Amino acid sequence: MRFRCVTLCILCVLLMTAGSAVAKVTVVATTPDLADVAKEVGDGLVDVTALAKGYQDPHFVDPKPSFIMILQGADLLIFNGLELETGWLPPLIERARNGKIIYGAAGYLDVSEGIAPLEVPQGNRSELRAQGDVHPAGNPHYMLDPENAKIVAGEICSRLIKLFPEHAADFKANLSKFNARLDGKISEWKAKMEPYRGTKMVTYHRLYPYFSDRFGLQSVAEVEPKPGIPPSPSHVAYLIRFIPESGAKILVMAPYYSEKVPRLLEKRTGIKVLVLPTMPGGGKGTDDYISMMDYIINNIAEALRVQKDKGK
Amino acid sequence: VSAPTSQKYEIDMLELKREISELKETVESQQQMLQSLRMQFNATQEKAAKPSEASVKRDDSETDKEILAALGATSQQAAAETVGAPIGSSLTPVMPRMLQSLNPDICAVGDVLYDLSANGNPVNRAVSGGGDRLSLREFELGFQAAVDPYVKGVATLGFGDEGADVEECYAKSFSLPFGLQAKGGRFFADFGKLNLVHTHDLPQVDRPLVLTRFFGEENLKGDGLGLSWLVPNHWKQYVQLDFNVFDKFNRDEGASADSAAGSDDMVKQLTHYSNLMYLARASTYHDLTENSSVELGASGITTDSADPSRTFVEGTDLTYRWRPLREGLYNSFIFRSEILGGQANAEKQYSNPWGMYAYGEYQFARGLSSGLRFDYTDMFEDDKKREYGAGPYLTWNLSEFFRLRLQYQHLTSDVYPYEDRIYLQGTYIMGAHPAHSF
Questions:
Q1: How far apart are CA A100 and CA A301, in angstroms?
Q2: Distance of alpha carbon A298 from its chain centroid, rounded?
Q3: Which residue, among A26, A64, A235, would best test binding to B if mutated, counting the most B CBs under 10 Å from its CB?
Q4: What is the rounded CA–CA span in Å between residue B331 and residue B328?
């Protein structure tokens, strides 16, 4: 009996030391854009896993039990917030039984906390869902504005420092490196978009308010009649009448929506359909955040240039 | 060189203009907020002036003072500054509001059923109690909130024709060490897959025949304790073990001897001899590809009776899912089956009934899916007599919170004449419905 106790104790000690011997910090991000920013900030010191794929609708991810296993071993959970993951993340956190990442723990990081949300719905809360699947705290697609990516990077950095103060200098250095790179890119992207300031566009879902604000575009209509509601025949008929009138040049949509209605609109109104990633991995050669933004900007600028040339 | 510079200035100018307009918006919204706060404040002051409410208000402000004393002077100052009014009166409206915001998440669900079939045999009245009638099957109220840093509270109340019923009310641990999770209170038994699903969330209108024959018309549930363990393993595969011990069951003790429906289900047999019931379940999940997965489970129930004639129920379940990540909004498929068997002693006459259901459901458009379910079960009273059911259904999720369903079912049995049933179901959800677990 005593022998058994001793072996058990030794086993426990071994297990504990084995746990602490792992040098890398395990970070789980809900979406690949946040995962990439975390990779940049924690460069070489963290292992980052994204739950959703870049070509998947982040509103509707299946809370697979395999994700529970990933979350069970996480030191830090980074999520988008503003109710983007509200349909699938809470049951995963609950079932993962990991005290490090439950609400209020140091490993629970809602990066939307530093963001100034757009499109926060006004008026009576109980009437809200009559407007469709509106997010009560505001539009959650803020990562398409690279200035917000900088804010998010800063938040991830300070949380990593809080959790692992021994690597503070590395995290800080990585952050300023990332910010410098992003700053350079932001002025490049702005310059590319500058000739098209004020251009009107149609979007499938309200994914682009932050993006349009940053780069001077104007979204005039959505293919969805209301957020989360699939296009109805009457709404499509309306768009066929409205698009030529509005002067919208491009229709921007995410890869996880059906192209059927946008292609019909393209055929009937001449508007140019662009299927663009909203997260890294959502298109070819968009493995990280910066290359994804490159892809988006280049495609929009190119489409608008062609339209402009046509107009001449 | 100069052209780009002037362009740059122009960009900067535009940027500045944008920033100014943003600032303007912020100031405006803050002014609005101030205005509404002022109005609230005035309204409550008026109320407080009324003599009839004065005594109540005094109590309120007394508690507020206590709370403030506990919070310290700084928050008093802060509160006074934000509202811009004397401390005692101004805080009366603010503090209760803050406490109110600690209310649990509430969701309300209405489940309306139109049973278009003619009156059938008495046994199959499980769903609506009779044919050709439209009725509110159930209204459900759900509450959820963190109780403290250790446990989360969950409660569900069901309201139907028979009155109100506490369906669930339990507390569940957030994070125990070693992958353990504990719960206590009244909860659905961790048996199989569909027993854990609320009636309005079922994939079809009705519960499969085998579950109603074995467990009764509602979920098998009881008052007890549950412990679940996420088994650590080298392959990082999901393996979970669940144990439940139940003391009291959701039956009318008096009615258990002869039920109005005429069928005596397994649970009544289980509770006939003993008060305690034990349940164990093992389940595992495996991703086959990025798009598809399989889930397997086995569950068993028994009583603590020392009598050799104790009752057992065993079940196995299989779920296969396919949902492509990119097209997942529009296409998906699920196949699920459960097989149940039991060894029961009904008045010392042994009966070994078994039964199963299987359904497949294909989603062919956004919000639209159709499926087919097959049912088979032995009649509990006499396991030589059988019952079959089969039928297709069409589900239309107009949004995440509103669903319509049309279902046809053909039922035959060795005892009763065959019958055809047609159901139309409408389900709507208000408020903070908790996310469905997978």
A1: 44
A2: 19
A3: A64
A4: 5
